[in-house]
Every structure is written in structure tokens, then in C-alpha cells.
Write a structure and sequence with these properties.
350 residues; alpha/beta; Rossmann fold; 5-stranded parallel β-sheet; two-stranded antiparallel sheet; 13 helices; 35% helix; globular
Amino acid sequence: MNEPKLLEEHLIFQGNSEPHQRIAQHTDSPPWRRFAHAQKAGDGSAGSVTEQRGKGYFARPEEIRAVNIAIYLRRPLLVTGDPGTGKSTLAHAIAYELGLGEVLVWPITSRSTLQQGLYQYDAIGRLQEASLRREQGNGSPKPELADIGRFIRLGPLGTGLYLSKPERPSVLLIDEIDKSDIDLPNDLLHVFEEGEFEIPELSRLPEDCANVPVWLHHGAGTREVTRGRVRCEGFPIVLLTSNGERDFPPAFLRRCVRLDIKAPKGDELAAIVAQRVDQANPKSAEVKELIRIFEQDRDDSSRELATDQLLNAVYLLTKDVGTLDLQRLREIVFRPLSNAPPETPAAPQP
């Protein structure tokens, strides 16, 4: 059987060990793989992360209701669903539509702790600076009390609480909370309920150091903290995402508004393609067939697939990537997300 090949003008890497500059002719990338910092865009401006990820989000009625309920109740929104259903993108869509600037993102791992989300204190860095001062004969051998704020940086949760106002709440994404240590959901409860926390390293300072400037998360400048207490004036818009890999304690669930995002189908997939892929025509025969194949593989064949795999395939179609037919594109891009050994999918049914 003849192997389908890419047309020569589409081959960036040719595998012939002959150096060339062909990549300079292919500088474009999918919208979801463009980096805001490379475009030197500021918060809320064209090209920002929030705009790139939030603009054109396809929101269903149940998602709109859940988001509004969470905002009215000032409660966190716990969003569950399969990988690739747009859980984290929803946070960016909210921030973009409401003009609330960039989303504060706290990616959770099994080693994440509450303090990492609230603040970090670089005690070693402070001692190193004191040692350098002593060696140079500049100042006291002990660290200056007033300098301690330079070694404290609020985390995404701490920054969200500090900056959030009733008329302009922060948007905080706590991503993949189900990957956390078993205690983290319960550890969050007090902060969610009280809307404040203490930085002991500052609260122990004498009266003449009551107001100490500290760094905010992700290069957002500095703000003063009084007597070591960080208090929010209005609860931020908090989204916690979960892939459904674990259960949460009732006390945690009681304090959250819950939303389960289902995998998009049919017209919903066509709308997502139209909104997310530049120059894609969801009504074209090739794109319609690709959507049908994707749904068949995901639903009828029970293969674990994510919507962004469909977007990747449609993007390749818009770039007219050579003579790869839909079947070969399907084999390459629609690989299941599970750890099961790959298998060649059956030919799509007409």
C-alpha cells in the first residue's frame, strides 16, 4: 500500500541531514499555542493570555447559570469534567467578558500546600543578603526588619484575596484540585469562609514596622500589608477544576457551587471549531466529516479523546498540510488519552 506523504512545500523537517532555514517560512501557530509574553501584551489587551484563551468560548446555558450563581453567592465554583472539555478555559472566558484582567492561576500538584497558594517567604535569600552586607561592611550583621517584605511574595490565592474588590473581583483558577494532597481541600475552607489570612513573619514585627510592602504574584508589583493580615474586600471569582479522579469531603462540597461540563457534541463541536480555529469553515465537507469521525471514535468506539484533538486536526486542514487524508490524520491526531496500547481505528462508517 502506498504511504500517504506530505507535499514537499509542507515539510519543515525533511529527515535528510541537510541543514536549511525552512522553518522561517512557517512561523504561524494555532491560536491556543501563541504566547502572550512573546507579543508584549498587557493585562486585558489584545494578545493577552485571558483574551487568547477566553475569547470565543462556547458557553452552554447550564454553564452560564452556574457561573452567575457562584458570582451572586460569592462561592467557589467547582468544575468537573473529562480532560479537554474546557474547564480551565471557562475562567479565562469569565475574566475576558467581564473585563477583569488576567486570571491568577494556581496549578495544583500532589505537593501543593495552602501556604504556597497564600505566600512564600525566602528566608534563605534574606540570610544570604545579610551575610553579604556583613562581608562588605554595609549595615548590621542582622537582617534589617524593614527589608523583610522584599523576601515575601503572595501566591496566586493570596494575591487574589488582596486585590479583589466588590466592584472588581479577581479571577482565580485553582487548576486540577483533585491532584492535591488529601488535606488541601479542607485547608482551603477557612480561607474561603473568612476571606483573610495571616503572615506570621510580618505579624511578629514591632509597631514601627506595621506596614510592610510585599511582592504580588507573577510580577504584579508590590502592596503594603498591615500587621501581617491580608484581607479581601470582596470575595474573588474562584474556579476549581477537577477531572473527577477523587471524591471531596462534604464540608468542602457544601461551600462550592458545582458544575459538571459534558463533552460537546454535534452543533456544539461545530460552534467551537468556528470560534477557536482561524479560517475554519465548520460547514465544509472535510471539517464536517472530521467532526463526525471524532464523535464516532469518542462516543461509539469509547475512545478517550479531548476536544482540542479535534481542533488540532481542523487546524492542520486549514493549513492544507499536504496529501494527508482524513483517515491518516485520524490515526495520527485522534490517539486515545488512556494508557491502553494504540490500535488502528476501524474505517469510519458512511
